[in-house]
Amino acid sequence: MFFSSLFSTSPITFVLILILCIAGVNFVNTTPAKIGQGYKLISVEKSPDGGLIGHLQVKEKNTIYGPDIPHLQLYVKHETDERLRIHITDAEEQRWEVPYNLLQRETPPSLKETIGRSRKNLIPLATSEYSGNELIFSYTNDPFSFSVKRKSNGQTLFNSSSDDSDPYNHLVFKDQYLEVSTKLPKNASLYGLGENTQPHGIKLYPNDPYTLYTTDVSALNLNIDLYGSHPMYMDLRNVNGEAYAHAVLLLNSNGMDVLYRGDSLTYKVIGGVFDFYLFAGPTPLAVVDQYTSFIGRPAPMPYWSFGFHQCRWGYHNLSVVEDVVENYKKAKIPLDVIWNDDDHMDGKKDFTLNPVNYPRPKLMSFLDKIHARGMKYIVIVDPGIGVNNSYGVYQRGIANDVFIKYEGKPYLAQVWPGAVHFPDFLNPKTVDWWGDEIRRFHELVPVDGLWIDMNEVSNFCSGLCTIPENRICPNGTGPGWICCLDCKNITNTKWDDPPYKINASGIQAPIGYKTIATSAVHYNGVREYDAHSIYGFSQSIATHKALQGLEGKRPFILSRSTFVGSGHYAAHWTGDNKATWDDLRYSISTMLNFGLFGVPMVGSDICGFYPAPTEELCNRWIEVGAFYPFSRDHANYYSPRQELYQWESVAESARNALGMRYKLLPYFYTLNYESHTTGAPIARPLFFSFPNSPQLYDVSTQFLIGSSVMVSPVLDEGKTEVKALFPPGTWYNIFDMTQAIVATEPHYVTLDAPLNVVNVHLYQNAIIPMQRGGMITKEARMTPFTLIVTFPSGTKDLQAKGNLFLDDDELPEMKLGNGHSTYIDFYATASNGTAKLWSEVQEGKFALDKGWFIEKVTILGTNGADGAFEINVDGQPIEDTSKVQFITAEHKYIYNSDDGGDKRKSMMMDIHGLKLPIGKNFDMSWKMGNSA
C-alpha cells in the first residue's frame, strides 16, 4: 500500500515539485564537466592472500562536493576463476560498507596496509597486469585508471579511463561524492540497475535516469527509483555471432545516480566505498550462477507458494474473506493462499487482531477449515510500531531499546497506526525482539507466512516530528497518509543535505523526504544516510530467522523493499501498479529484472492495484499472471472488487491459464530447486536460452519459464491475435500439442488469441513433467504424472532431456540427502527407427513412499509407433503391457520455415495406461513408424 497510489502523481509529490520549481531547482544534474585530475598510483604490492594492494594519492585537490580524500587504498583479488573484486576506500579512515554480517564476503586487508611500512612485496609500477584464469585486471598509474579484460578473447569488460573529450571524470573520491565510469562498446546490451519501471523494456535505455535509493513511490511511475536498490547490471555482447555475457556489481548501499549514455556508464554515489565485483559469465545463466553464488542463492519456496494467491486491501471483516474463498471454489478457479492486508489489525497495529471484524475464535475456526483443505493464510506486517503505551509490542520494544534514534530518543514518524517508531534491524537485540513478537503473534494466529511492506522505509512525514498536544493524530477522517504530526525539516546536517543531490523520486527530492531522517542513528552509530537502502533487506533477514525458528518449516516472506541478496530470504512483488495495458506490459520487464537480481520468486499485482480494471484487461492479465513465478491478484482499498470470479469471462480465462499452471506445478517447483542451487531465474528473457540471436536481446513482451516454456501474451486492448517472435527450433502449443511451429531463424508468427486464450509453447529437446492439476496444490501434487517429450521436427537423430525434483516442502532446506527428497533425470532419443525414453533416479524412496507414478507419456515430433514396445523398471521387464495404448495425431504446422528440411510426417503420440513408479529407474522403447 502507498499513499500516492491513488494518483499517478500523488498530491504530496505534486506539491513538492511545485515548491521546488518555484524555488528554481533544476531537475537535471548540473555536475561540472570535470572534477579534478583524479589519483596517481604511487605503489602497488602483493597482499598475503594473493591479491594486489595499491596506494593512490590525489593529484589536484578541489572542493566541488567537498574536499578530496587524499589517500586511497586499492585492493584487487581474483576471488574465484570467474569473479574479480576491486575495492577502493580511504586508506586512513574506516568508511561505511554494507555490513559483512548481512552479506557475507571476504574482508579486505586492514587500512594503512600501504602506508608507512617496509616493502618486501613491491611490484614495479611498470608492471600493469594482474591475471586470473578468466579475467585480467590492468591499471594505468597516472592518472590512475583500471580495466578488466576477458582472457579468452581480449574483450574489455570495464574501462575506467577518462579522456579530455569524455563527459565524465577521472576517479573522484570524496566523503559524500564518489564517481567512476566505464567505457562501453555501442553494441552492448545492458540489463539491470533496478528497481524501476522501465517503459522501453528490459534493456537499459541510453539517457534514461537510473537512480538507486529505496523509496515508497508507486511502481506506476516510470524511470524513478522505486522500492529496491540493485546496483548490478549484466552486459550482453554479440561478437561475430557468438554471445558473451558478464555482470558488474557495485556493492554499495548509499544513494546513487547511474548515468548510461550508450557508450559509457558513470556511477555518482553519495557515500560508502567502491566495491566492484565482476562476474565473467560468459553465458547469461553462468552470470546469474556466479552472481548468486556470491550474494546468496535464492531461498527455497514451499510448494504451495506456487499456487494462486488472492489478496485485497479492504476485506473489512472475516465474513468477506470467507466468501472470497468459497466463491473461488464455486467458480472452480484454483486458489491456495488467502491474504489479509491491514484489515485484520486492531487500529492498524502490527501483530494484533481487530476484536470486532476479525474475532480470534472465528478466525481460528476459519483457519482450521482452510488448513484442513490445504490452503494457507498470510498477513501483512509493516515496520512502524505504533506509539501506544497500552500496546505490548511497543512496550517491549521500548524496554529492549530496539528503535532507530535521533539525538538519543526513538525517531518519531507516522505510518498507518499514526505515530510510530522504526525497529533497528542492525541491532542484534532488535532481531531477537522481532523474533519474539512473531512467535507471540503466531501463537495468536497460526499464519503461514509474512508480508513485510512499507520497508523502504516509508514515512508519511518528513524531518523531526513530535506528537501534537491539542489534536488527535490521526483523527480518523480523511486519507490515512496525510501527515498530522508536528514536523520541521532538518537541513543543517551534511547527512540530511548532502552536497550532491541524487535524482531521488525523479525530482531531486531531499533524501529524507517521506522516510527516516538520514541523520538518524542505528546501532553502533551507523547513520540512516548510509544504511537507508538496506532497511528492507535487514528486516527480511530478521523475519526469515524468526519464521524458521517457529516450527522448523520453510519460511515464506514477501518483501516490498529489496537489496543485493534479498532473494536469499524473500520473494518480491513489484508494488503498486496501475490497472492499465501499459502496466501489464511493464510487469514483464520488472519480473525479468528480478530474476537477474537473484530474486526469482516475483510477480506483479494481477489486474492492477488500482483503479478498477476493465474486464478485458483482467482477462489478459490473468493469462500473463498465471505464469508469473509468484501469482497473486491484489487490489486497492478504494478500487471495486476484482477477484477473478467477478466476471464470467475472466473466470474462464483463469480456469484456462491457472489450470495449465497447476498442471505445470512439477515443472515450476523443479525450477525452484534449480534456482536455489544455481540461481537460474524461473522467468527468463528469451535470450537466456538463445544468447546468440541478437534479435531477441530486447524482447520484453514474451518470456520463458525455465528454458523450455515460452509465454506469448496479448498485451494490447481489443486484440485477438498476437505477433510472437519464435527463436530457432520447433515449438509445440501446450494447449493443443498437435500444433507446431518450426523456425530456422528468429521469426515473427501471428497467432490467434481469442479473449480466453493465451499462447504458451514448448521448445524442442525437452522433457516436461506435468500432473493432472486441480483446485489446490495439495491435491494437484498427488495426482499421476505425464511426461511431455518434445523432439525437434524434421531431423533424424532426436534427443530430449528434463528433470524433476520432489521433496517435503515444509522442510527448511531444499536438498538431496535428507531422506525427504527425490531427484530424477529423464532422457529420450530417437534414431535408426527406434525411440527410447528412460529415467535415472537419485534417492527414490521419498517418491516411492508417496506413491507417485507416471500414467502417460506424450511424444512430440516422431512418426508414432510400429511395434516392439518394451518397458523395464529397475532393469526388470514388464511382461503385461496389455493396458498400454497408443494414440497418434498428425502435427499441424502453423508456421514452418524449414523448407530445406526433412519432409517426414511428424506425429503427436500419447502412450496411455502406464503406471511407472517415479521413484524407480525405468526405460521404454519402441519401433517407430516406417517413414521415420
TrEMBL record:
Keywords from the UniProt entry: Glycoprotein, Glycosidase, Hydrolase, Signal
InterPro entries, alphabetized: Gal_mutarotase_sf_dom, GH, Glyco_hydro_31_AS, Glyco_hydro_31_C, Glyco_hydro_31_N_dom, Glyco_hydro_31_TIM, Glyco_hydro_b
Domain Glycosyl hydrolase family 31 C-terminal per the UniProt entry, residue ranges: 679-768
GO molecular function: carbohydrate binding; hydrolase activity, hydrolyzing O-glycosyl compounds
Any Pfam family matching the protein: Glyco_hydro_31_3rd
BP GO annotations: carbohydrate metabolic process
Family: Belongs to the glycosyl hydrolase 31 family.
Protein name: Alpha-xylosidase 1
Provenance organism: Nicotiana attenuata
